[in-house]
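Thread: quick sanity check before group meeting

JM: Hey all, I'm pulling together slides for Thursday and realized we never actually wrote out the predicted structure for the chain we discussed last week. Dropping the sequence here so it's in one place. If anyone has concerns about the input, flag it before I start.
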Amino acid sequence: MIDATPKRLALAVALLAGGCAALEPKLPAADAGIPAQLPVAAAERAVDAEAGEVADIGWRGFFRDPVLQDLIGQALEHNRDLRVAVLNVERARAQYRIRRADRLPSVDATAQMRRGGGDAVPVSEDFSAGFGLAAFELDLFGRVRNLSEAGRQRYFAQVENRQAAQISLVAEVATAYLGLSANRELQQLAERTLRSREQALELDRKRHQAGAISALELAQAETQVESARAEAARIAGVTAQAGNALDLLVGKPVSAGLTAAALDDGATGLLPLPAELPSSVLLRRPDIRAAENTLRAANADIGAARAAFFPSITLTGATETASPELSGLFDAGTRGWSFVPKLNLPIFQGGRLLANLSLSKVDRDIALAGYERAIQAGFRDVADALALTGTLARQRQAQEALVAAAERADTLAAARYRAGRDSQLARLDAERTLFAARQGLVAVRLAEQGNRIALYRVLGGGWKE
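JM (edit): ok, ran it. Output follows.
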């Protein structure tokens, strides 16, 4: 095997002659393989009459319900997950400041008294004071600078992660709030249906006593009442769970006594999307920017690993004054100094430096793949939300028409049953159809609002606040 040491020495001399060298490689370009345009259809651009872009507004401009705005504000203040994200930013900032401090010399001042003696040794005292430069590395090849840059990029990544956590929290609070609103609306519907069926049952009992209906028809009416009672109890339990979920997100109990707006009262205000939305808007998402910062940090680590192959020079210096008496510590003739430059040339490291360089390159490639994966996932999230925007609007219109038709059918079935023209089974079937249609309408409205929130989140909205 050919010894590479002379080549390294020659390169080191050349770099020394040229001053500081930059060994960090060029940042590789990401190739996510996604279309240049996001799939925005005409039906998906007419959500609101206002102008602007989703990613350019804060959550207070997007969520119009004042109760929801207050809940989001409380969650941003009290949510423990977001608090952890904020603390991670502070931790990364401290780590970066430690790395940045390595680029500056450290000067220490010392003062010392030594007192000693023994059985046959007289007691003696020595006093000394001084200050010095402690092992400052001349960053000839950018090793310290690259390590500092890597720390800075990781700090930026934590800042973006914190922003992504905030946007996710805002979306989760809004989703939980709307879910609680939907469950309470379903609970009111179930209780209203239960009261209606109980009133109908009382009439059927009187009709049964009068011989107008059979015992079978009366039993069928009782079955419908108990079915409605069971459904009301089930929805009450789900509503309580939704309230607990909202309390956890906000960080303190808020759901008790909370008056939530109806799903069709404009809780969200998604602005219209432009006719052509380039995929480059995904680069504004905090999670994608965090992945980019991680890639830059890994690339800087390669520069530090390359610099480790070359000589390093550290400077240590000190000036000191010493005296056997404290009063004479700073007298003439007590001062001394030292200057110790040290050259370190790696010759044989057992493959450690090569392995460290290979590890840095693999980490950079992993970060690049993660960056591309984040872009692809972001494109899919936005495409999924856009695909549902138009279909959910049409589904809601169809469900509203279904509810209107079911209400007419229920009214006619009740009138025909009272006139004796239809059986009890036909009336009960119309009631079940109407109840299911109304439940479906609440579910579609919730899905439509939830998809608006999802589109706002996946486009990285809310970073202005």
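AS: nice. Residues 143-209 form the longest helix (67 residues). The first strand starts at residue 107 and ends at 116.
JM: adding both to the slides.
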